[in-house]
Amino acid sequence: MDAKSLPAAGRKAAIRTPGNVLPLLLLAVLLAFPLADPDDYLLRLATNIFYFGALGCAWNLIGGFGGQLSLAHASLFALGAYPTGLLLINLGVTPLLGGLVGIGAAVLGALAIGYPTFRLRGPYFALGTLAFNEITRILLLYFRDYTRGPLGLIVPFKGNNPLNLQFSTAEPYYYLGLAILLLGVYAGYRVSKSRMGYYLAAIRGDQDAAESIGIDLTTTKLKALVLSAALTGLVGAFYTVYIAYIDPESVASIDLSIKIVLIAIIGGTGTVWGPVLGATILIPLTEVSNAMFGSGKAGASLILYAVLLIVIVLFSPRGLILWLERPYRVLLARIAGKG
Amino acid sequence: MLLSVEGVTKRFGGLTAVNNVSFQIQPGEILGLIGPNGAGKSTLVNLITNYYRADGGRVLLEDHDLVGLKPNRVAALGVVRTFQSSKPFLDIPTLDNVMIGAFLRTDNPAKARAIAEETLELVHLTPFARVPARSLTVQNRKRLEMARALATRPKLLMLDEVMAGLNPREIDDALDTLRQLRAKGLTMLVIEHVMRATMNISDRIVVLDHGEKIAEGAPAAVSADQKVIEAYLGRGYRHA
Fold this sequence. Notes:
The structure holds two protein chains of two kinds. By secondary structure, chain A is mostly helical. Chain A contains 17 helices and two strands. Chain A has a two-stranded antiparallel ribbon with strand order 1-2. In chain A, α5 (73-91) crosses α12 (217-243) and α9 (171-193) runs antiparallel to α12. Mean pLDDT of chain A is 88; it is low at 1-11. In chain B, strands 6-7-8-3-9-10 form a six-stranded mixed sheet, sandwiched between helices. Chain B has a four-stranded antiparallel sheet with strand order 2-1-4-5, covered by helices on one side. The chains are: A mainly alpha, B alpha/beta. At the A-B interface, α10 and α11 of A face α2, α3 and α5 of B.
């Protein structure tokens, strides 16, 4: 079947094209995976891939589609995590509500970052976001009366309690993580197909030219950053109940910001699926590195990231997803040919 | 009138790049803006579109004062420019470049696509719709830049040296396109270095030299003006 016969064949046929069936097939496998009763470790690894993939998708909205190198995403993550944790621990507020407060805090953080820094261009924006990230981390350490500073917050486990998103098994977190990742992919898909996606591509390409044809640079970037922050805050809230421990070092450090950026760059910035691929590669690699060199020596995985980044930038600056694109198209064509 | 430039001045440090320049553009006309290198032609475009902030004077589009607005607001009001060194969005397809222009008047991707396809046809870029703008030649990048601006449905299109660097054949193509646009009623400000092209296409011409307007009028009158010959054509005429 060639492309031109598609409109005549109608909507139902379009749903049956392999380009739409394969992602659904992958989703079905992921949904069924816990039923095979895998090791808890594998479930947790998959969950980690999901939430890091979602973080990559969130960053990609502004950093990939819009080309604005944000190094503040760890702080947005922390702004999602801390309100969730504090409300749950101190007041017993369900993370379903606390998470909303966290998302709101992350959005306010995005406005605080974006409003002053989006007037800056090039490296100055990246430096501005870097400063914001450090300020957030230091404030979390400083206000120890509320945040317990470097000791961090421990979310006490009080038995299976779905309302508080506390579960004694790994499966519920797996499905929650998967749902959040799907939301991240969906956000990227919707943005890429909309006027906003085109506007962000224009801003990535040339800001003067974008402005000359009527694009409001600051508003467009702010919208993308706010969306990105909301998603990042959501992942932060999820992380809080999933890991049940947050401290400034693990949720607000510049290392985390860089890791999020790397996930998107390795997979492919400005593509819908790139961050998912990036997380699928980077997170297991981190596990292997931690197993080999000991997780205490975090330096080992940093060296790994650096090497990976250099290789990607040299040989495939637009990410590994481009290497998969052609084989994937060939595969689609084969399936279509047989069907 | 459509656009009225009134006493616009711009200084860079001690240098007055544009000094008290006034002119008007009537609806439907092509106004040529010429002058030697460094005369302030591009600066004037940057002032009208507010890429630079004027040190004095006013720019009125119909009744709106454009001074102080952001460049994107100027574009939304219908004054759209191209850049002397063209600035396509290199990583995305030619068609998508033009769609981004069309999005100024619609938020519907299907409608933007239809406008973009129509506009590409007009500048003969349809065969290149799907390739990334990076792979286009200089001539085609200039056409793309024009198409992208046209897709915003401007009231006034300001073309900054779209014919510079083109060979005579390509210039004729470009002139053809401009005539077609005029036939559709589009008002244009054409900044050019290529004299033949400017004389050929313009209804009226404004001449800048050292940031000041030294002549304005019909092409024939301007090219016979003694001041213009001295400032701009002098050496060429002596040798001729």
